[in-house]
Specification:
The chain is of the alpha+beta class and 212 residues long. It is 33% helix and 21% strand. It has eight helices and ten strands. The chain has two domains: 142 residues; 50 residues, no CATH class.
């Protein structure tokens, strides 16, 4: 079972919020069945001490809308929802037409499209995209290197404790405004508010997807 494979890779969740019943009605048929299965098993859950989360797509939609507004991607426009995110706000998005096709790193303003529209014909193909997103994601790729070129997550976790389902680690001042990327400049912030701040201060760059 896929959920067992998630536990083998990420361990049991350290935090979980039950999924409201209306989420299944709203997203059933829109997202892969495998994601609904993960919600039933884990809830909207944080893994690896909060490094990686299964998102509530409704709660994270404002951040998604902010970062996908006016994007000009080769496959054309899509309707996006958040599937997973990192402690630093990196988002993996599902598109109704293009599948598991967009990764956004708001700290650097980098956007990585990966059109999966050729893999949308069957529920098996849709589920396979979701399995890949949950099981091939690497923890190191979710961390951010500081100015000393060493990952920040463990050091920030020790200073501040873990983020919650609606909070994230935030640099103050943000790197785009010249703020140094050191553990002492990180705080826990409301995710919706900080994702908006990042979108207003950090130029967006569409890049080739390094995770492909």
């Amino acid at each position: 079972m896929t959920t067992d494979a998630v536990i083998r890779k990420w361990g049991v969740p350290f935090s979980s919020v039950p999924v409201p019943g209306d989420r299944y009605r709203e997203f059933g048929g829109r997202v892969p069945d495998a994601l609904l299965e993960a919600w039933r098993k884990f809830g909207f859950a944080g893994f690896a001490k909060g490094l990686w989360w299964l998102c509530d797509p409704v709660a994270w939609q404002p951040a998604v809308d902010t970062w996908t507004a006016d994007l000009e991607l080769d496959p054309g426009p899509d309707r996006w929802c958040a599937v997973t995110r990192s402690a630093f706000g990196q988002l993996s998005l599902w598109g109704d037409r293009t599948g598991m096709a967009l990764t956004i790193n708001p700290v650097f303003g980098t956007i990585f499209p990966d059109d999966q529209s050729d893999e949308m014909d069957s529920q098996f193909d849709r589920d396979l995209q979701l399995y890949s997103a949950l099981l091939t994601q690497q923890a190191r790729a979710l961390d951010i290197d500081g100015d000393d070129e060493v990952g920040l997550f463990d050091r920030v976790l020790e200073r501040l404790g873990p983020v919650g389902p609606d909070t994230m680690y935030a640099f103050a001042p943000v790197p785009a405004l010249g703020g140094p990327m050191i553990p002492e400049n990180v705080e826990i912030a409301d995710a919706e508010v900080h994702m908006q701040i990042l979108s207003e201060t950090t130029p967006r760059q569409i890049m080739a997807n390094p995770y492909r």
